[in-house]
Amino acid sequence: MTRIGLGYDIHRLEKGRPLIIGGVTIPFDKGLLGHSDADVLVHAACDALLGAAGMGDIGEHFPDTDPRYRGADSIDLLKTVYAKIAKEGWALVNLDATIFAQAPKMTPHKEDMVGRMADCMAVERHRINIKATTTEGLGAIGHGDGIAAMCVALLRSATTTNEL
Fold first, then answer.
1. For position 163, what pLDDT does the model report?
2. Quick one: which of 13, 110, 123, 19 has its CA closest to 78?
3. In terms of pTM, does the model score above 0.85?
4. In the beta sheet, which residues pair with residue 131?
5. Which pLDDT score is estimated for 6?
6. Residue ranges of the binding site
7. Do residues 58 and 20 lie in contact, with contact meaning Cβ atoms separated by under 8 Å?
8. CATH of 2-157, one of 3.90.550.10, 3.40.50.2300, 3.30.1330.50, 3.30.420.10
């Protein structure tokens, strides 16, 4: 059996914070504002994985009202999410993500993001694809106020014998 899940996240950019996307610190004059490190890509991936497994969303597992998650490294959250879905008998077929950012350019960092995310879930790199686009200057993202990410994940039951 296979199941698909969709995740989306958006955070405001603010001076004085590091910009962390896909577990990679990107040199930039602003970072994302949030309770944790505000890694929009990893948060979208967590929601996609949890959704595909029918296990709710990131806010249910790591509420922003819980002080334990203040400043949390989102890569650690992804590792925990993947362990939870694996315990329920799910394995990643593939994860496809898009980052929406006017600046900075994401292309130089995409391979490092793939590596960080694949390593924390202990999956092959070819199972993760990351794309990036701008909004051509439109809306809050286009005006440089924030960055968003969308992710889709396909899971298969670990008991499935044939690979997709």
1. 52
2. 123
3. yes
4. 98
5. 98
6. 9-11, 35-36, 43, 57-59, 62-66, 133-136, 143
7. no
8. 3.30.1330.50
